[in-house]
Amino acid sequence: MKRRTVEEVMTTEVVTVAEDAPFTEIAETLADRRISAVPVLDAGGRVTGVVTEADLLRKEEFRPDDLGQRPLRGRRRHHAFAKARAVDARGLMSAPAVTVEPGATVAEAARLLASRGFKAAPVVDGDGVLRGIVARRDLLSVFHRGDDDIRDEIVVDVLVCRLWQDPSEVSVQVRDGVVRLSGRLELKSLIPVLVRMTAATEGVVDVIGDLSYERDDTRFSGP
């Protein structure tokens, strides 16, 4: 089955800053480029961290009031306060950066962003050198497949090549990414397998199964 990789969907032109980039330069970069975060690179082009809008806002969060009083700080706020005092990317960035490799699948990247609550992640090679950036909108490109393309993959790759089923016995209809399976399979145990593999096909939004079987192989028959 086809599995698109991060390398196929990532953006290769990435806005970055150096570790010694000053606070104001980073703030202007985010505002001018209308982005919410920027990777920080060392002299060798390796990603050492990421500065986000939230990191910059620490400066305002801990700004003294008119009487010179700063917000109360507990032990858990010490790290945030340190960022509020930072004047360059090295002090502002979150490190180490959460990154993804070019060969990771789109599904793996999607799970990473979802688990961390990130909008994007830098893409780095085995040496940590920046190769691109992948955002949520890039990952959505897997749904930009035509219905005919999705159907062909299910029929050829799933039914014929992986399950060894006669495609004339199963109807595969796809409309707007929703797949409807109907017909007869040889074994009952193959029904959930076909549904699961169809759902795992890139571009599939939902699967509707209306399948029967010739033989129930899920029941144990004693000697």
TrEMBL record:
Entry-linked CDD domains: CBS_pair_BON_assoc
All copies of domain CBS, residue ranges: 10-67, 93-150
InterPro entries: BON_dom, CBS_dom, CBS_dom_sf, Diverse_CBS-Domain, UCP036990_CBS_BON
Domain of life of the source: Bacteria
Keywords associated with the record: CBS domain
Keyword Hydrolase part of the UniProt annotation: no
PANTHER family found in the cross-reference section: CBS DOMAIN-CONTAINING PROTEIN CBSX3, MITOCHONDRIAL, OS02G0818000 PROTEIN
Name under which the protein is recorded: CBS domain containing membrane protein
Native species: Actinomadura verrucosospora
Lineage: Bacteria, Bacillati, Actinomycetota, Actinomycetes, Streptosporangiales
